[in-house]
Specification:
The complex is a heterodimer of chains A (353) and B (260). With 353 residues, chain A is of the alpha+beta class. Helix content of chain A is 24%, strand content 35%. Chain A folds into two domains: 4-232, P-loop containing nucleotide triphosphate hydrolases (Rossmann fold); 236-350, RNA polymerase II/Efflux pump adaptor protein, barrel-sandwich hybrid domain (OB fold (Dihydrolipoamide Acetyltransferase, E2P)). With 260 residues, chain B is an all-alpha fold. In chain B, helix 2 (39-46) crosses helix 12. The structure holds adenosine-5'-diphosphate and magnesium ion (MG).
């Protein structure tokens, strides 16, 4: 049994079913992200774990103990909010020590622990400041220290980086991940930013309309998205229509060319169309080595992004995006020029919808 | 032209308020024939009843403030947190004391809590003091509630509450260590308003027959010539002192917020 067990969680607000049959086990020390568009129920799942919302049905177990009916302040959880939520009337040190004080930890021990936490977040000298004297990134760091100080069993983070500017966001997410690893604390991280989720999670839960569509490691989610929604939400995806030739042999025709897929089950009968998906980095300009499929294309747009050049080209009636690495000896083709694109059949993702 | 009219209106207003005050102050200084003196003030301050009634009213004001804070802060907090849709109703209720005359309230009290009732509060001095404190708290409710509610608006009540809960805090800890300290400035301004109201209140204290400052002013006014205006000036000074303190506290709070 996993350390944190969420079993068949459901949440209904009035007539609005916000979370449907959410089940998953999270191992001790694991970092799991809930990823999905705004309004898909991520926060609601997190708030049920925190005890701010009572599940309409289902159960939550932490370390074998059923906490479903427990109040928040008995659950020994730590929480980080998007809106920092530091207590404005207290110094940084008092904020960090608040949970310990509530617990009745003696003053000396509390002081040591607060100092330790401030060192952990890299702000050892700011204990006597007030929250309003700190930058957003510093405040959120203090919020992390405050959540971790009482040694919670689970750390819950609800879009803690959304209010910060881009640079701080990236550095702080790595810092959060490092601290989480160092302490070995179990964490659930809510975000709508797929890059954020991919870069720091052990596993990602992609949610859509209150349902967990797919659970898996970032590599798995990105390379083997099970549904069209997951594929579209995580990363950029090119969709191409193909006609089924032989379902058993995974044989299709795409723009007059025969493609034999390396993986996936084709449930569609012969003669019908299916949707194939390709990541931008799986499509190459020109005929690349190991690519069985080559198609004529017209270059429409060229975006030079530095190390990567993103090209949008029209292929078989649709526009696809493809990424190539920048090479000083190989300038990108001008827009409007004719080109050939190629991809390997093993990179094709078959979407189940 | 509009500027001129505005200034005229302003000046008329000032005259309307200031002239009587000046006249009254001037008169209070004329106790000694032919010269200005503070004799009337000396007489007031020399009267032991002044100090007795004043300290009595001060004590009741303190009790009223404590009771008001204990009643209003948790209520306003709870309404903001759990019953935001009930806010207009609560606000309306807190405004009722402004439209219901104090005399109606106090007659209601006397009817409900007289010596032959189940809870004969008017039967003892302490009971009557408690009743009077409740009455004062009712009179101060509109001001206290608005002050505290405005104070609560400046903090994110819901998120701070949840943050505290996630750290293990219960309701009492949240109210005492997070909510109250954050609305302290608002509570203080509400407290000074309450003080000003209680010090000058006449109807309730007189009808409940308690030795408060208001009835003393009335008594003096009925029997003397020069002391009543002196007392009125003193009462004004106290009220204005309270207003000044509110200003000071508010200034302080703005200063605090400006730093954020
Ligand atoms: N307390 C509530 N009462 C009614 N509806 C709510 C409440 N909280 C959330 N919802 C609804 O539930 C849905 C999911 O919300 P939420 O979990 O906050 O989504 P997310 O965090 O993924 O953006 C939204 O449609 C929202 O309007
Ligand atoms: Mg959310």
């Amino acid at each position: 049994m996993a350390f944190l067990e969420l079993s068949n969680l459901e949440k209904v607000f009035g007539t609005n079913r916000v979370v449907t049959d959410f089940t998953m086990g999270i191992e001790k020390g694991e970092f799991v992200s809930l990823l999905g568009p705004s309004g898909c129920g991520k926060t609601t799942v997190l708030r049920m774990v925190a005890g701010f919302e009572t599940p309409t049905s289902g159960a939550i177990r932490i370390d074998g103990q059923d906490v479903t009916g427990q109040r928040t302040n008995q659950r020994a959880i730590g929480m980080m909010f998007q809106a920092y939520a530091l207590f404005p009337n207290m110094t940084v040190a008092d904020n960090v020590g608040f949970g310990l004080k509530v617990k009745g930890v003696p003053r000396e021990e509390r002081k040591d622990r607060v100092a330790e936490m401030l060192r952990l977040i890299g702000l050892p000298d700011l204990g006597s400041r007030f929250p309003f004297q700190l930058s957003g990134g510093q405040q959120q760091r203090v919020a992390l220290a405050r959540a971790l100080a009482p040694r919670p069993r689970v750390l819950l983070l609800d879009e803690p980086l959304s209010a910060l500017d881009a640079k701080v966001r990236v550095s702080l997410r790595n810092e959060i991940r490092d601290i989480q690893r160092e302490l070995g604390i179990t964490a659930i991280f809510v975000t709508h930013d797929q890059e954020e989720a991919m870069s720091i999670s052990d596993r990602i839960v992609v949610m859509n309309g209150g349902i967990a569509e797919q659970v898996g490691a970032p590599f798995e989610i990105y390379n083997n998205p099970r549904t069209r929604f997951v594929a579209g939400f995580v990363g950029t995806l090119n969709m191409l229509s193909a006609t089924v030739e032989d379902p058993a042999e995974r044989m299709l025709t795409l723009a007059g060319q025969r493609v034999v897929l390396a993986r996936g089950e084709i449930a569609t009968p012969r003669g019908e169309t299916v949707t194939l998906a390709l990541r931008p980095e799986a499509i190459h300009l020109g005929r690349a080595e190991g690519c069985e499929v080559a198609l004529p294309a017209t270059v429409e747009e060229v975006h030079f992004l530095g190390s990567v050049i993103r090209i949008r080209a029209r292929v078989a009636g649709t526009v696809v995006a493809l990424d190539t690495f920048n090479r000083p000896d190989q300038p990108p083709p001008p827009p409007g020029s004719a080109a050939e694109i190629s991809f390997a059949a093993r990179d094709v993702i078959l979407l189940a919808d | 032209m509009t500027r001129f009219l505005a200034w005229t209106a302003f000046l008329l207003g000032v005259l309307y308020f200031i002239l009587p005050l000046i006249g009254m102050t001037e008169f209070s200084l004329k106790m000694r024939r032919g010269e200005y003196s503070f004799d009337a003030y000396r007489a007031v301050f020399g009267d032991p009843r002044f100090w007795e009634t004043f300290s009595y009213s001060l004590t009741l004001a303190a009790a009223t403030i404590v009771f008001g804070v204990l009643l209003v802060v948790p209520t306003a907090y709870w309404v903001r947190l759990k019953l935001p849709q009930a806010r207009p109703i609560i606000e309306f209720i807190t405004l009722l004391p402004l439209v219901i005359p104090a005399i109606v309230i106090v007659f209601g009290y006397i009817r409900l809590y007289n010596t032959s009732s189940i809870l004969p509060l008017t039967g003892s001095a302490l009971g009557t003091d408690i009743l009077l404190t409740m009455g004062y708290a009712t009179l101060a409710l509109p001001y206290m509630y608005r002050a505290v509610d405005t104070g609560l608006r400046t903090i994110d009540v819901a998120t701070l509450t949840e943050a505290a809960q996630s750290l293990g805090a219960g309701w009492f800890t949240i109210l005492a260590r997070i909510i109250l300290p954050n609305v302290l400035v608002a509570v203080l301004s509400g407290a000074f308003l309450t003080l000003a109201i209680v010090i000058g209140e006449f109807t309730m204290a007189a009808l409940l027959n308690r030795p408060a400052f208001g009835p003393f002013m009335q008594l003096l006014g009925a029997n003397r010539a020069y002391e009543p205006p002196a007392l009125a000036v003193i009462a004004f000074a106290i009220t204005w002192g309270c207003m000044g303190l509110i200003q000071l506290v508010t200034r302080f709070s703005k200063h605090e917020r400006a730093k954020v």
